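DM from R.C. (forwarded with permission)

"hey, sorry to bug you on a friday — could you get me a structure for this? deadline for the figure draft is monday and I only need the backbone to look sensible"
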Amino acid sequence: MLHSEFKTPLAASAANAHCDGPCGVYDPADARIKAEAVLSMTKKLLALSHPGDASDQQAMASYYNTMSRFISIKEEQAHRCKEELLVLWTDFFKPAHLEANADLHDVFWKATKLCSACKQEVNLEHAQELMTMVQKIHDMFWGAKNREVAWYTAS
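My reply, with the result:
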């Protein structure tokens, strides 16, 4: 049973938020770190040498173990990079940002497609293109905040 004080709706202040929770904390750095991991794992996969002697079970097991670990990391980081980019694209950027960045949607679309390509293949060119697209997003993001934040990589 409701008390009489709950029968009347309470007045609420209007709230504005750019995402599901109005934290206001966004940064493309997480996407950069994940894209860097994709690039690093791609390089490691391409540099990984087959042991040559398929009858050496220990060497083959070590080779496959290392390869599967590199692949797993590459695919997980590509997926996480895509998630980070999608949050920036859908939650942070607003229609007003398109005025300054007419190619915003195209850049994000290509970057997320590159995340998928990097999961599906071992392609150094695509991994490097992903880093380039993430750098463009970095520049768009900080430009939208009227701040100059230098692009850097950890590796």
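R.C.: lifesaver. The domain at 26-47+57-144 is CATH 1.20.120.400 (Four Helix Bundle (Hemerythrin (Met), subunit A)).
me: no worries. DSSP finds five helices and no strands in the chain.
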